[in-house]
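Shape matters. As here.
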Amino acid sequence: MGKIIEIEGVGMVREGKRILSDINLSVNAGDFIAITGPNGGGKTTLLKIILQLLEPTSGTVSYYYESEKVKRLSIGYLPQKNSIDSNFPMTVSQVISSGLLGLKGVDKSRRQTLTEGALRDVELESKANSPIGALSGGQLQRTLLGRAIIAPHDVLVLDEPLSYIDRSFENKIYNLISERAPHTTIILVSHEMTRFAQMANRHIIIDRTLTECHSLSHRVHCDCCE
């Protein structure tokens, strides 16, 4: 399949500190890219640049659809929980359904059906009308995951999807992501790579610069992962 995102020469400097340096990456349609690296290495910054939520100091990010350059893609995004204001007056259902904003052809009935399906997927039906400020950390993480996966997207970007999640729900997250992998492009950041490494077809380390590895499995290491 052809490329869907092209990252060329991306660098980021913030308050005089270099966060990213000369990042080059072609993301192909259908890729499952697993990203790891040290804290402060620039992983989340790179995701925000890919999403065009941050403008890089240098370099460009381009989107493609069927080999043609486009201005935007349909992207589902799971941010880190600490970037969300939990006091914002929205219910779980409202947050999840906000993942449909900008999608064409979604009428009221379809919105309700997709929202109910996402609530079931993340096991929050009983919390549908609860304000997000009343949720535990794990419940808020599941709410944000529901927003990201509520509908099929061209790209699914997941930043530390296992954060705050109870062990009892981990397998469900792996299954939800695995179900979507054959139908979308996935870019995922996680410190816990044991299962994700088995699911991904590309493995990348970000530590201000980018290194693509043969494997991030705990059983098989390449030189750059040592």
About this structure: The CA atoms of residues 122 and 169 lie 9 Å apart. Strands lie at 3-14, 17-28, 32-36, 58-65, 68-70, 75-78, 155-159, 185-189, 202-207, 209-213.
